[in-house]
Amino acid sequence: MPDLISGDRRAHLYSLERWQYEALDISLWHERTEYMVALLRRYLSNRGEQDADLEILEFGCGSMALESMLREGGFTRARYIPSDCHARDERTLVLDLNAPDFLDSVPAVDVIFMGGVLEYLDRAESVLDALSKKARYLFFSYCPRVASQTEADRLGWKNHWTPGEALAIANDLGDGVMSESGFDPSAPKPVHTYFVASRNWWRPELAAAAGPLPKIHDRPVRCPSG
Ligand SMILES: C[S@@+](CC[C@H](N)C(=O)[O-])C[C@H]1O[C@@H](n2cnc3c(N)ncnc32)[C@H](O)[C@@H]1O
Question: Taking the model in full, what pTM does it have?
């Protein structure tokens, strides 16, 4: 089968510059974010933290749909901190997760949130490991490699973990993982999510109070909209 994508187009798909011009207001991404907010609400409710003064740092914030969804999802006291490789507004913490020294500018927060970002990173596993030192909880999505996918389905993505590999990586990050795969975009791009209680707590007193999470495959939640 001939390569129908030109070298230039291929290089563009893997570049950081692409994100300066890419459309970010994508309904499927927003549905994923809404779904993740509902899950986050449940995970934090289970730990008695749903109404806490949480700092939630979003990497790859894109259009920042998360900000209003957090408010609408009941996180009225949360402080939202957006970050992206390009400035999305004047608040954006501009940072390239592929840069070797990116961690130096990451503040310690309660929750790090990443939806649809890991797939674009050169060293996604070490980025997750580094971020686990900066937050009590990591909450991220990942589109794992499944048998029904073609190479074209994963074009532009830089890593290709299977569901088992992604879960093993998440398990290694902390003292417990809630993993979920109920969000159902059109096949063949399943979305899995991972809520990790980080092992490297920045507030040890809260770690003792919260305790470890069980390693279970969670049941899906219903999105507020559907
Ligand atoms: C698929 S979009 C998802 C946007 C948003 N999270 C959402 O779900 O609507 C990927 C986002 O990751 C950002 N991104 C891509 N590569 C990045 C990098 N190396 N460092 C930081 N952000 C990056 C892009 O600018 C973009 O905002």
Answer: 0.89
